[in-house]
Fold:
Amino acid sequence: MKIVDTHAHLDMLKHPGPAVKRARDAGVAQVVAVGIDLESSLKAAQLSRELGGVFCTVGMHPNNAAYTERSVWSELKRLALTAPAVAIGECGLDYYRDRTPKDIQREVFAQQIALATDLGLPLIVHDRQAHEDTLAMLKEQHAGRIGGVVHCFSGDAAFAKKVLDLGFHIGVTGVLTYPANQELRDLVKLVPSDRLLIETDCPFLAPQAMRGKPNEPSYLVHTLAELATCLGREPEEVAAATTDAARRLFGLPELGE
Structure:
């Protein structure tokens, strides 16, 4: 049974190499290392060259958007082409933290949607307490043509339907395992199996069994187990479905290649 961690901040781990090895031993065969600014995108690209089964993205997180210089965009585009990247992001809107003015967040998000469209790459979308604006921007920028994932999904069933109607996937993290998160456990039952992705968002959001520890890709097996329970399906079946969805969205090679 092999699975894919579709969202990991490997550059934030103290020892990403050993963490990736533990992931492989646990059955996590591929990891998408996600960039949140130019520096982390460069690190993600480097890790994708050094570690087998690791693939990178490049992007600018909304919390970092206020510090984006004009020259960064040409650097991100160059890196996306040369790495090569499998997606643009993590990008989007965050109205929970007051680190970047909303108008700047929207401007930087629009630039990354345009970059993804230009390069024909999917988007990894951060959406925190900004559901309507996130959806509006994706529609206005015709992001459905390239698709992507709303990672660490935090909306309700109505918002999930709108995201799915736009052609996007829904990413589920270890928060699925938290006792208080029954709404998400109910919601995943409504999502087509070919549009669900599993992710750690490590080193954040460790699953319930590992709460208090820095999260890492090997812990993805706990989210898989919980998702299988929610769906009333065998873990192997859910592993196959989420892995196939990840491979198709990000253009990942067959496991073992």
Observations:
- The chain has a mean pLDDT of 96.
- Residues 135 and 175 are 22 Å apart (CA to CA).
- The longest helix spans residues 102-119.
- The radius of gyration is 17 Å.
